[in-house]
Amino acid sequence: MQIRFATALSADEYVRQQAWKDAALDNCPIHSKDGCGFTRHGTYSRQSPEGTKIARWYCPDGHSTFSLIPDCLSSRLPGSLIDVETAINKVENAPSQEAAVYGFRIDVGLTGVLRWIRRRLFLIHTTLRLLTKLVPAFHDCQPSISSFKATLGVEYALPVLRMSAGAYLYVLPPPIGFGPRPQRKKGKKPPFQHKTGTDPPEKRE
């Protein structure tokens, strides 16, 4: 389970200060009383930003681990929330997705990078739509980065949304929230129908 680690540090500051050492989780999120064996369980590394580590705890009775994700980092995606927002903002203000991703992820080619950005677009726009319904202050917002930035009056919206949407973090999908990934709606398949065949031969009398 991922849990919010409230901090105003940027991703670079988090790594430079090794802030995972300051992360604290005093009580087991599953059990209200002591005795479950809840204890710190070291750290695990993330690929991006380089040098990032995440503090982790373990409950033996619940067979569960708990990771403290700082406000600057994406949940269930590599990199920071600012990295995600920068990419999404570029797409929202470009004439096409292909034009926006020019120069992104040259290691995977155009097809791969379009899949990469569309996954993030889907997650972020789904989250923003949910926030317009859940949070009264965002009722008039459009599900776009620029609309939320204007309402919040900030340079980067996603880290602020992580901080301000605490009550809904386990409903909201990644990379802002810690809820499940939303499923794309699939179009209904047409009902199966046999192909029309030739007419049966006429009986001779």
Largest sheet: 4 strands, mixed
Note the beta-strand portion.
Answer: 5-15%
Approximate helicity band:
25-40%
Assembly classification: single chain
- What sort of overall outline do the alpha carbons produce when their principal axes are compared? globular
Low-confidence stretches: 189-205
So how many helices?
A: 6
Mean of all residue-level pLDDT scores? 89
User: Number of domains in the coordinates?
Assistant: 2
Radius of gyration: 23 Å
| Helix/sheet category | alpha+beta
Span of the ends, CA to CA:
78 Å
Q: Please count the beta strands (DSSP E, at least 2 residues each).
A: 4
Order of strands across the biggest sheet? Answer: 1-4-3-2
**What's the SSE pattern?**
EHEEEHHHHH
Describe the structure.
With 205 residues, the protein is of the alpha+beta class. It folds into two domains: 1-72, no CATH class; 74-180, no CATH class. Helix content is 31%, strand content 13%. It is built from six helices and four strands. It has helices at 11-16, 81-92, 97-100, 109-134, 145-152, 158-164, and strands at residues 2-5, 39-46, 52-59, 64-70. Strands 1-4-3-2 form a four-stranded mixed sheet. Strand 3 (52-59) and strand 4 form a beta hairpin. Helix 2 (81-92) crosses helix 4. The longest helix has 26 residues, at 109-134. Mean pLDDT is 89; it is low at 189-205.
What is the secondary structure topology, with strand pairs?
Blueprint: E1 2-5, H1 11-16, E2 39-46, E3 52-59, E4 64-70, H2 81-92, H3 97-100, H4 109-134, H5 145-152, H6 158-164
Parallel strand pairs: 1-4
Antiparallel strand pairs: 2-3, 3-4
Helix pairs in contact: 2-4
